[in-house]
Amino acid sequence: MPETIRVLVVDDEPMVCAHLRTILGSAPDIEVVDDAQDGAAAVEAVVRHRPRVVLMDLRMPGVDGLTATERICRMPDAPAVVALTTFDADKYVLRALRAGAVGFLVKSTPPQDLIGLVRVAADGHTVLSEDAKRRLLAATGGEQTARERAVRLTRELTEREIEVLTCLGRGMSNAQIASGLHLSEATVKSYVSRMLVKLDCENRLQAGLLAYDAGLVPR
Fold first, then answer.
1. How deeply is 210 buried, as exposed, middle or buried, from its count of CB atoms within 10 A (0-12, 13-18, 19+)?
2. What pLDDT score was predicted for residue 214?
3. 3-state SS of the chain?
4. Cβ-based neighbours of 74, under 8 Å, separated by 6 or more
5. Which end of the chain, N or C, is less surrounded by CB atoms within 10 Å?
6. Burial class of residue 17, CB neighbours in 10 A (0-12, 13-18, 19+)
7. Partners of 35 in the β-ladder
8. How far apart (Å, rounded) are the C-alpha atoms in residues 27 and 4?
9. How high is the pLDDT of residue 219?
10. Dist. CA 49–CA 67, nearest whole Å
11. What region holds the Response regulatory domain (predicted)?
12. Among 112, 125, 13, which Cα is nearest to 59's?
C-alpha cells in the first residue's frame, strides 16, 4: 500500500476547510490531519502533525498565509506548501512562491484535479496548471528588480547549468531534461541541486521563475 499523504488545510473560512476535507477525504491515500483558520495556528499544526502537504490560503486576518508560508518553509524537513487562493496570480501569490511554496491553486479547482495535484505536491513536484502558469508569467512581467537579480545570478552558471535551468523554466521533469540533454537522471539531479544553491532558490519552481525573469524562457 502507498504511504498515506498527510495534509493540513489552512483557511479562515470553516466552510472552505470542510469542503476541502470532504474532497480530499474521499481519496484512499490522503488524510487531512487538521485544519487551521490563521497562519499562526497553521505553523503550530505543522509542528504538531508533520504533514507532507499544506494547502495555504494566503489572505487571512491576523497572521496571513504569506507569513505562515515563510515560517513553514524555513523549518527542517518542511512540508510542501501549496498556495490556495480565489485570486489571479498577483504579486501576493508571487511572494509566496518566492518564499518557498511549490505552486498555487485556485479554490475552484475541480475535486479530482485537486486530489491529483496534492499527490503531485507530495511527490516533490511543482503544482502549477497551465492556466496558473499564464497568470503567473503575466504577474512577473513588470518586475525590473527581479529581472536584474536573475540576470546577475545566471551569469555565475556554466553553459550546461544554463541549459538545465532553461528546462526547469519550461516545467520539465528530471527524466525529460535527461532525455533532452542526453544526461543521466542522477546527473540532472546533481545539476539542479548545485544550481539551487548558486541561485539562492528553495525549490525547482523558484529556479524556473528565475529562468523566466532572466529571459531564458520566452513568455
1. buried
2. 86
3. CCCCEEEEEECCCHHHHHHHHHHHHCCCCEEEEEEECCHHHHHHHHHHHCCCEEEEECCCCCCCHHHHHHHHHCCCCCCEEEEEECCCCCHHHHHHHHHCCCEEEECCCCHHHHHHHHHHHHCCCCECCHHHHHHHHHHHCCCHHHHHHHHHHHCCCCHHHHHHHHHHHCCCCHHHHHHHHCCCHHHHHHHHHHHHHHCCCCCHHHHHHHHHHCCCCCC
4. 100
5. N
6. buried
7. 9
8. 10
9. 60
10. 19
11. 6-122
12. 13
Q: Residues 41-91: pLDDT tens digits?
A: 999 999 999 999 999 998 888 888 999 999 999 998 899 999 887 765 556
Cell of 217: 524562457
The grid coordinates of residue 184 equal 543521466
Spans of the chain below 50 pLDDT: none
Other beta carbons within 10 angstroms of residue 62's beta carbon come to: 12
Establish how many alpha carbons lie within 13 A of residue 179's alpha carbon, considering only the half-sphere containing its beta carbon: 5
Q: Which of 205, 163, 217, 208 is nearest to 187 (CA)?
A: 163
- The identity of residue 45, as a single letter, is A
Quick one: which of 70, 62, 60, 67 has its CA closest to 101?
70
